[in-house]
Write a structure and sequence with these properties.
Elements (H helix, E strand, L loop, with lengths): L3 E4 L2 H12 L7 H23 L12 E6 L4 E6 L6 H8 L5 H12 L20 H4 E9 L8 E6 L4 E7 L5 E8 L9 H12 L6 E9 L15 E8 L16 H12 L7 E7 L5 E7 L16 E5 L2 E7 L11 E6 L8 H4 L3 H24 L1 H21 L4 H7 L1 E4 L8 E2 H6 L8 E5 L3 H5 L5 H6 L4 E3 L4 H8 L1 E2 L2 E5 L10 H28 L4 E6 L8 E4 L7 H9 L9 E5 L4 H12 L4 H17 L7 H14 L1
Parallel strand pairs: 2-8, 12-14, 17-18, 17-20, 21-23
Antiparallel strand pairs: 1-6, 2-3, 3-7, 4-5, 4-7, 5-6, 8-9, 10-11, 11-14, 12-13, 15-16, 15-18, 19-20, 22-23
Bound molecules: adenosine-5'-diphosphate.
């Protein structure tokens, strides 16, 4: 292979630019990022060697070496991990594989000021590119374990938009990242500095991080005594800088908050401290140790289909998987951390993990611990809980639908907007139930596209008049959530856009029924007329008990999907079965008096037909649906206005 000069993908250029031109408030983290990559590479090799021992050639002492060369002003981070092939170098170093980084760049595009707030970069864990904060030139020499020594790859870049790759010979498999340090970064050649950084950020890395340290020693004579007037000799020895003790194996009382936080940043590639830290060990039928973290912020891609993060899985301290998706249900995908099992078989393959009963037991246990802690937060500090909920509530809701075993616990953790504060404050179901007037029997909710639309929905009218609170659900998942929950504290969750609502007391009902009877007497024929005229659009036309001001609204039959559900299905490109809805009319509204008069005088009046259609269109518009013929609608309204 000859030397090739290639261009970085546009997005990387942008990232490099940020790295290079920002006076990074915390440059130190470049070392953590590179050590973390080296450690991952060793983990990968060790895992590969479980099934193909040949890849290890003769070496097996895994190690990450830091080599500081003062005269050349270079710092090298060298590992004997899995290494990379040419394709992998161009693929993984030349593009941004990690969705977190991509998400960061997308945010920068949207908010250019982010670029001037480089402390945010670290939040997204930009990994390898952090090298350009300390180095003006980065050289990467790598060879994949298992391929001949001649098939090494040399990669070099000044972070200026281009990189060069060529073939090289490399005796040892693994990767050397050679940093030609910027002039104001020479402190990274100092022993004390490297020692400090490794202790601070990478102490728990399982593999030894070594450095050659020089020491001046006085020469000793045969009896071990110092020789008078002798000059000190320079001794070089290799020192391991990290304690290497897997943090989860240590006792909780020996671990400082700072150590947990650093460990979190290492596993989650995050920048800010976690919101919740849980460290525990389980004994009994499945033994394992775990440290779980709830991050401060939800990642930007939490709801993207490709968002895949799992916990790290170790078996007897051997790294198995960086993202074990089977350890937690999907709705807890925001949780980061590590699980180390003592009884899963080491040779477990990723494919069979899912069906392993031991793993299922671990998973159950992890979910329980997490829900315990989240519940605790909710009970102890409502504000803190709501801050957590604003980040992760939407995913938690998925659980109320999908995790049958924990449905009730999850339902208690959920909050919704409600008519009580016009949607400005969140209400839990328990809060809702305790505030219910004695006469109220069910929990009322309304789903829709936006809070604004929900707040003005005609469906709310009778409830507002009665002083009954209605939960306003404006999130996509809510339709499934309420379906999943079904009942809360024995109270049915009822959509007020469906079926018949009966919110009157028995006495009121008698009175209302009487009124309805009278209205039916006077409007019965008109209603039949409306039914007939609109029969291709609506299932039925009836008198409403939920309207007090608006003229009409549409409701779904008790077991049919609501308009909101139809809208969601359409957005998901799902087939939407044709359900007609019911047009409810408010007989108190003066429009019906007028229509009735018209009807009595001339059943065939074209105006009557227009009115019927206009009523339907209005009902569609207020619920946020499309009307069939907007042009017709506006022409009719204008004509009516001209008449008025
Ligand atoms: P991340 O490590 O978060 O995936 P990076 O930008 O740090 O992102 O690295 C990109 C990819 O390059 C890694 O996922 C890995 O495949 C590869 N890589 C980086 N450093 C090394 C290394 N020392 N050895 C082997 N592969 C590496």
């Amino acid at each position: 292979m000859t030397t090739q000069t290639l261009e970085f993908k546009a997005e990387i250029k942008q990232l490099l630019d940020l790295m290079i031109h920002s006076i990074y408030t915390n440059r130190d983290i470049f070392l953590r990022e590179l050590i973390s990559n080296a450690s991952d590479a060793i983990d990968k090799l060790r895992f590969a060697a479980l099934t193909q021992p040949d890849v290890l050639e003769n070496e097996s002492a895994f190690k990450i070496k830091l080599i500081a060369n003062r005269s050349a002003k270079t710092l090298t981070i060298s590992d004997n991990g899995i290494g990379m092939t040419l394709d992998e170098v161009t693929d993984q170093i030349g593009t941004i594989a990690k969705s977190g980084t991509r998400a960061f760049l997308e945010e920068v595009k949207k908010h250019p000021d982010l670029g001037s707030r480089p402390e945010l970069i670290g939040q997204f864990g930009v990994g390898f590119y952090a090298a350009f904060m300390a180095a003006h030139t980065v050289i990467l020499r790598t060879r994949k374990a298992g391929v001949p020594a001649t098939q090494g790859v040399l990669w070099q870049s000044q972070g200026d938009g281009q990189y060069r790759v060529e073939a090289t010979e490399k005796a040892q498999y693994g990767t050397d990242v050679i940093l030609q340090l910027k002039d104001d970064c020479l402190e990274y050649l100092e022993e004390y500095k490297l020692r400090e950084l490794v202790k601070k950020y990478s102490d728990f890395v399982e593999h030894p991080i070594t450095m050659d340290v020089t020491r001046e020693e006085m020469p000793l004579d045969a009896e071990g005594k110092e020789i008078k007037d002798a000059k000190p000799v320079i001794k070089i020895s290799e020192e391991t800088l990290n304690s290497r003790k897997a943090i989860w194996t240590r006792s909780k009382s020996d671990i400082s908050a700072e150590e947990y936080n650093e460990f979190y940043k290492h596993v989650a590639k995050d920048w800010v401290n976690p919101r919740i830290t849980i460290h525990f060990s389980a004994e009994g039928s499945s033994e394992f140790k775990a440290i779980l973290f709830v991050p401060e912020h939800a990642p930007l891609d939490l709801f993207m289909p490709e968002h895949k993060t799992g916990l790290q899985l170790y078996i007897k301290r051997v790294f198995i998987s960086d993202q074990c998706l089977e350890l937690l249900p999907d709705y807890l995908r925001f949780v980061r951390g590590v699980v180390d099992s003592s009884d899963l078989p080491l040779n477990i393959s990723r494919e069979t993990l899912q069906d392993n009963p031991l793993l299922a037991r671990i998973r159950k246990n992890l979910v329980k611990k997490l829900l315990d802690q989240i519940e605790k937060l909710q009970q102890e500090d409502r504000d803190k809980y709501l801050a957590f909920y604003r980040e992760f509530g939407r995913v938690l809701k998925e659980g109320a639908h999908s995790d049958f075993d924990n449905k009730e616990r999850l339902a208690r953790l959920l909050y919704f907007k409600s008519t009580q504060s016009n949607g400005e404050q969140l209400r839990s179901l328990s809060e809702y139930v305790s505030a219910m007037p004695a006469a109220q029997k069910e929990i009322y909710y309304l789903t829709g596209e936006s809070l604004e639309q929900l707040r003005h929905s005609p469906h709310l009218e009778a409830f507002a008049q009665k002083g009954y609170e209605v939960l306003l659900m404006d999130e996509f998942v809510d339709e499934w959530v309420v379906e999943g929950i079904g009942k809360f504290q024995d109270k049915l969750l009822r959509s007020i856009a469906k079926g018949d609502v009966e919110i009157e007391s028995p006495e009121e009902k008698v009175q209302k029924d009487q009124q309805r009877e009278e209205k039916t007497k006077s409007f019965g024929d008109l209603i039949s007329y409306l039914k007939e005229t609109l029969k291709s659009e609506v299932k039925d036309v009836r008198l409403s008990s939920r309207l007090t001001q608006s003229a009409c609204c549409l409701v779904a039959d008790a077991y049919d999907p609501t308009a909101n559900m139809e809208r969601i299905l359409q957005a998901m490109k799902q087939p939407v079965p044709e359900f007609k809805r019911i047009l409810e009319i408010n007989a108190e509204h003066p429009v019906y008096e007028k229509m009735n008069r018209l009807f009595q005088t001339d059943k065939n009046s074209p105006l009557l037909n227009d009115y019927a259609r206009l009523l339907l269109d209005q009902a569609l518009l207020t619920e946020g649906s499309k009307i069939k013929d907007p042009l017709w609608f506006t022409q009719k309204i204008s004509a009516l206005m001209a008449l008025g």
